[in-house]
């Protein structure tokens, strides 16, 4: 197994994240510092990151219905509630795939599978994320085209891939990007405040009837479908 895949499977982060650990000379294999990303390791090898011996952990693939009021971090310096407070304490170390800001709700995937994280977050894969949004005032359909064409916000050029008007103050949006607070910032440009934002889908996985703070393990079929979703979306 390649070293970066081994470290990701051990719960140290996404494939890209653990590659930086290797490039920073923080990883040793059998006592030797390794910086070659192509290094392969076997079950008998001893792998350390700093002084910690790293072992591959049981894979976890789960979906969480994030409530409002929780932050997507493992350790918040301000003492706020985090999504990891909602997950079983006996799980191996997992990380969230993408994020939702504290006020937002909905679907989060948590895993220690670096391959799945890469498949869902790498910009070239363009996996769809679907949201339902409630606004503080009725939406003007004249703003729809510009939101779909896109414009610059803090963080880069942003656009909605699809926009459906569900009601006077209720929208369904689809993104391929993941810029920080993208939906809120884009709508704010037209004078709208987002009252509620719920992510209802990532790729083929939907929240369905999950309650706030509820989690469930993904099925093997769902994991396979998620990993296939990115190349399939790219080829479409």
Describe this entry's structure for a reader.
The longest helix is centred in the last third of the chain and has 16 residues, at about 220-235. This protein has helices spanning about 5-10, 15-25, 115-120, 145-150, 180-190, 220-235; strands at about 25-30, 30-35, 45-50, 50-55, 60-65, 95, 105-110, 130-135, 150-155, 155-160, 160-165, 170-175, 195-200, 205, 215. It contains 6 helices and 15 strands. Helix content is about 20%, strand content about 30%. The strands form 3 sheets. Strands 5, 6, 7, 8, 11, 12, 13, 14 and 15 form a 9-stranded mixed β-sheet that branches. Strands 2-1-3-4 form a 4-stranded antiparallel β-sheet, with no helix packed on it. It has a two-stranded antiparallel sheet with strand order 9-10. It has about 240 residues and is an alpha+beta fold. Residues about 230-235 have low confidence and may be disordered.
**Helix/strand order, N-terminal first:** HHEEEEEEEHEHEEEEHEEEH
How many beta strands in the DSSP annotation? Answer: 15
Helix vs. strand class: alpha+beta
- Spans of at least 5 consecutive residues with low confidence: 232-236
What Rg, in angstroms, do the CA atoms define? 20 Å
| Main beta sheet | 9 strands, mixed
Going by CATH, what is the homologous superfamily of the largest domain?
Pseudouridine synthase I, catalytic domain, N-terminal subdomain
End-to-end separation: 31 Å
Which percent band covers the strand fraction?
25-35%
* Molecular shape: elongated
> How many distinct domains?
3
What portion of residues is helical? 10-25%
């Amino acid at each position: 197994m390649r070293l970066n895949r081994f470290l990701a499977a051990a719960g140290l982060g996404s494939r890209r994240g653990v590659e930086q650990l290797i490039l920073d000379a923080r990883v040793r294999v059998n006592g030797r510092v390794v910086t070659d990303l192509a290094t392969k390791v076997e079950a008998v090898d001893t792998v350390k990151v700093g002084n910690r011996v790293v072992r591959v952990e049981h894979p976890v693939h789960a979906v969480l219905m994030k409530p409002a009021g929780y932050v997507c971090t493992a350790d918040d310096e301000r003492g706020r509630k985090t999504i990891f407070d909602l997950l079983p304490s006996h799980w191996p170390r997992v990380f969230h795939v993408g994020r939702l800001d504290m006020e937002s709700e909905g679907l989060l995937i948590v895993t220690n599978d670096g391959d799945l994280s890469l498949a869902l977050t790498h910009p070239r894969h363009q996996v769809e994320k679907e949201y339902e949004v409630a606004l503080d005032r009725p939406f003007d359909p004249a703003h729809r085209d510009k939101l779909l064409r896109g414009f610059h916000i803090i963080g880069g050029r942003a656009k909605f891939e699809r926009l459906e008007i569900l009601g006077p103050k209720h929208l369904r949006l689809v993104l391929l990007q993941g810029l920080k607070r993208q939906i809120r910032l884009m709508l704010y440009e037209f004078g709208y405040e987002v009252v509620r934002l719920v992510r209802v889908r990532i790729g083929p996985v939907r929240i369905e009837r999950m309650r706030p703070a509820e989690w469930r393990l993904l099925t093997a079929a769902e994991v396979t479908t998620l990993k296939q979703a990115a190349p399939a979306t790219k080829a479409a």
